[in-house]
Amino acid sequence: DKETFDSLNVLQKLFAKEQFKVKRYVDDNKRIYKTVPIQVPADWRPDLNYSARSKENRIVFEALPSNKEGMYCALLLLREDDEFAKPNADSKKLREFFDEEFPQFSVLLDDDAIKQIALKGSSNLPAF
């Protein structure tokens, strides 16, 4: 780092490894997530990732296979201030949202699953 390099004498600087700079950016699109267990139908390929984005990138749905029988671990990626990011969100509104924005996945989630998703709190993604 710069401090270490600056502390070297002239001869050491001549043979020192090239320095690099680190530019840190402010995360202006921070997302949190809620998990969504989902079983895909037998006629869907169980070895693919499934993904969908809502209008204006409000919410992203990412589903990753967890076994060869079609069980998936999906994530809803939400902004922290989204109404569905909070615990005890309105499950009826969440169902309406899924029906409108993610109809291909909405049919795979029964009302109990939607209610569980709405009730649970969200988790933070790691910072990089």
- The helix tally amounts to 5
Order of helices and strands: HHEEEEHHHE
Q: What is the general shape?
A: elongated
In the predicted model, the low-confidence regions spanning at least 5 consecutive residues are none
Overall pLDDT metric: 91
Q: Any idea what the radius of gyration is?
A: 22 Å
Largest beta sheet: strand ordering: 2-3-4-1-5
Helix vs. strand class: alpha+beta
Please describe what this structure looks like.
- Helix content is 27%, strand content 24%.
- With 128 residues, it is α+β, with helices and mostly antiparallel strands.
- A 5-stranded antiparallel beta sheet has the order 2-3-4-1-5, with no helix packed on it.
- A hairpin with a 5-residue loop joins strand 3 (59-65) and strand 4.
- The longest helix is centred in the last third of the chain and has 11 residues, at 91-101.
- The mean pLDDT is 91.
What keywords describe this structure?
128 residues, alpha+beta, 5-stranded antiparallel β-sheet, 5 helices, 5 strands
Short summary:
By secondary structure, the protein is α+β, with helices and mostly antiparallel strands. Helices cover 27% and strands 24% of the residues. The protein is built from 5 helices and 5 strands; from the N terminus they run ααββββαααβ.
Provide the fold topology.
Layout lengths: L1 H5 L3 H6 L15 E9 L10 E4 L5 E7 L5 E9 L11 H11 L1 H4 L4 H9 L3 E2 L4
Antiparallel strand pairs: 1-4, 1-5, 2-3, 3-4
